[in-house]
């Protein structure tokens, strides 16, 4: 076998950027790349391991011989080891055999590896990210599709369990390129969000315990297969968002933990470097090289895979030093507070760089506390995200709908409170996977009452979500009212669509998606107080709430009426902002949605009767447990 030849992809400028935490393109420099050098085809390897005494590349090509192919340490004290091995080509498996300065022997995957063996195997695979993309139309238009004043209705998907083969095997990226893309298009969602597709050894982690940060999971195919899936979504006008996990990583022996015999990626202090809830390890956000690694990883997916946005997982756990820790298990920052200043600085810099390099994407924070300014610009002291998950809305709304309708008149505040703070951030309203696991019940079985009431309640819940200010996110299965909790080991219960009620929920979501996309009142000012006005928020006697959603002009006004009990309301009067005929755009009680088809006029003429502070009003019948949407 040929010897290792000295070679480098790094310039002095690259090294300076890396050491100062400013490099956002490390995936062009670190890793394994098939190249031609001096007329010979082979692979250039490079890895950051500053605490190593020696680094060897091992694999099938050298019978896993830990003495055959040693890399060279750079002279600049960067801690980078590199070299060119002839004859090694794309598709070859490899690991790094590392001897630390303390004598510890480790076998590690490539932190920058582009492809991995399918778990439980753990080696990296020499690969590339070459593709001739055919999504130019989407890429030119996505600045509009991803803007804050455009509709964003997100379908959250776990690729391993959306649908499976008859043998309960995973669908491939190619299968999903046909089936999933067409389904999301048919349902009317504007975006799809994948729970982490980066390589992870433990399937029950759902992808949130990542070892291969630069490798799409080989469970479903190769990197080009995933690229094609993204491309197919784009060709159908649908954006792709990825869950991204810079908050923690698992302790698997082949992964990032103790990478070169020392705490390289994780913070060395267990009070800051170990996560007690998840038994995982926390990145050292104050280490410049780690910042370069994480920022390069974010840029990698946006660049090489044409991803349209990143939903950053567990931001709250990054922001607080005392997150999920008891007294004595954490130490205050230099100012005596509980904020992780290094993580805050990292997130600000991350958003500056990502929006600077990819201005037409969205950075979305899953942040569950009242930390101020998550979606405010960094120059105003904010974190710089584009959107934030509205966990308060989710909790309050699900609590409200869980209550027996007879008691709801005492709890209308649970449903209306969110509007007090709805415009303090750019909020996304999530009904996510976290709400339908671990004994929390499916969305359908959170609803009270008999079968009819459960489905009617769910239709009203979904109507409230789609008409409330903010963008929307719905986890797979919720769109047809799956009865059972989500199980990552099996397919969704698609057979339930043979039932009229489940089919009705699916039709409801289709209709709401269409309404959300077509009526500017629902999206053009969805993050501004100018786009919302209460008509009545406290009709406890009837448990009915009414509000106006507004667009850029008065023609873009719609009225939403939610009847939150199974009692129909005859001749219910509401004040309206405009005289004329008000037409029914949507009625969740229609039989096609699984409703009772309670008699209701399709259009109502205003009367000059002052009501609820308006000069004009209308009177109409409200079906039981329903959402009715009107437009002048």
From TrEMBL:
Keyword Nucleus: no
Pathway annotation: Glycan biosynthesis; glycogen biosynthesis
Annotated organism of origin: Aquirufa salirivi
Signal peptide: none
Protein name from the UniProt record: 1,4-alpha-glucan branching enzyme GlgB
Record-linked InterPro entries: A-amylase/branching_C, Branching_enzy, GH, GH13_cat_dom, GlgB, GlgB_N_E_set_prok, Glyco_hydro_13_N, Glyco_hydro_b
EC id: 2.4.1.18
Keyword terms, alphabetized: Carbohydrate metabolism, Glycogen biosynthesis, Glycogen metabolism, Glycosyltransferase, Transferase
Reactions catalysed according to its record: Transfers a segment of a (1->4)-alpha-D-glucan chain to a primary hydroxy group in a similar glucan chain
């Amino acid at each position: 076998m040929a010897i290792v030849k000295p070679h480098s992809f790094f310039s002095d400028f690259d090294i300076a950027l890396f050491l100062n935490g400013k490099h956002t393109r490390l995936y062009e420099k670190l890793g394994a790349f098939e190249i031609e050098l001096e007329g010979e085809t082979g692979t250039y390897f490079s890895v950051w391991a500053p605490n190593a005494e020696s680094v060897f590349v091992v694999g099938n090509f050298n019978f896993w011989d830990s003495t055959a192919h040693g890399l060279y340490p750079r002279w600049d004290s960067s801690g980078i080891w590199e070299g060119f091995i002839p004859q090694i080509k794309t598709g070859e498996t490899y690991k790094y055999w590392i001897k630390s300065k303390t004598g510890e022997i480790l076998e590690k995957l490539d932190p920058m590896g582009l492809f991995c063996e399918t778990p439980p195997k753990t080696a990296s695979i020499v690969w590339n990210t070459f593709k001739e993309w055919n999504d130019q139309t989407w890429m030119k238009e996505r600045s509009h599709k991803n803007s804050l004043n455009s509709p964003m209705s997100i379908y959250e998907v776990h690729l391993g369990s959306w649908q499976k083969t008859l043998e309960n095997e995973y669908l491939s990226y190619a299968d999903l390129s046909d089936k999933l893309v067409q389904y999301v298009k048919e349902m009317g969602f504007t975006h799809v969000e994948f729970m982490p597709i980066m390589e992870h050894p433990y399937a029950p982690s759902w992808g949130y315990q990542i070892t291969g940060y630069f490798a799409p999971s080989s469970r479903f195919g190769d990197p080009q297969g995933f690229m094609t899936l993204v491309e197919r979504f784009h060709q159908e006008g649908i954006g792709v968002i990825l869950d991204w996990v810079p908050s923690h990583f698992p302790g698997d022996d082949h992964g990032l933990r103790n990478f070169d015999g020392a705490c390289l990626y994780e913070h060395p202090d267990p009070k800051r470097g170990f996560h007690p809830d998840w038994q995982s390890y926390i990145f050292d956000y104050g280490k410049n090289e780690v910042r370069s690694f994480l920022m390069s990883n974010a840029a990698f997916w946006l660049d090489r895979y044409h991803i349209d946005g990143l939903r950053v997982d567990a931001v709250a756990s990054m922001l607080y030093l005392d997150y999920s820790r008891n007294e004595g298990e954490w130490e205050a920052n230099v100012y005596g507070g509980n904020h992780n200043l290094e993580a805050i600085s990292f997130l600000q810099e991350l958003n500056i760089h990502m929006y600077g390099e990819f201005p037409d994407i969205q950075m979305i924070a899953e942040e569950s506390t009242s930390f101020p300014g998550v979606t405010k610009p960094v120059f105003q002291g904010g974190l710089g995200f584009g959107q934030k998950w509205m966990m308060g809305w989710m909790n309050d709304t699900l609590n409200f709908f869980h209550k027996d309708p007879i008691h709801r008149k005492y709890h209308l505040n649970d449903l209306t409170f969110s509007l007090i703070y709805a415009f303090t951030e750019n909020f996304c309203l999530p009904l996510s996977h976290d709400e339908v696991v671990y004994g929390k019940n499916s969305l359908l079985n959170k609803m009270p009452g008999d079968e009819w009431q459960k489905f009617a309640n769910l239709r009203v819940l979904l109507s409230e979500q789609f008409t409330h200010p903010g963008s929307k996110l719905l986890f797979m299965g919720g769109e047809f009212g799956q009865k059972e909790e989500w199980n990552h080991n099996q397919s969704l219960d698609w057979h339930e669509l043979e039932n009229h009620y489940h089919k009705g929920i699916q039709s409801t979501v289709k209709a709401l998606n269409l309404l959300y996309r077509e009526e500017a009142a629902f999206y053009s000012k969805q993050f501004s107080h100018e786009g919302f006005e209460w008509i009545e928020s406290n009709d406890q006697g009837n448990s009915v709430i009414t509000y106006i959603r507004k667009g850029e002009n008065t023609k873009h006004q719609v009225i939403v009426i939610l009847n939150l009990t199974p009692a129909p309301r005859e001749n219910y009067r509401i004040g309206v902002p405009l005289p004329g005929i008000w037409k029914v755009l949507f009625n969740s009680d229609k039989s096609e949605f699984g409703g009772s088809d309670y008699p209701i006029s399709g259009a109502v003429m205003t009367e000059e009767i002052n009501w609820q502070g308006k000069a004009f009003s209308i009177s109409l019948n409200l079906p039981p447990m329903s959402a009715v949407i009107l437009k002048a």
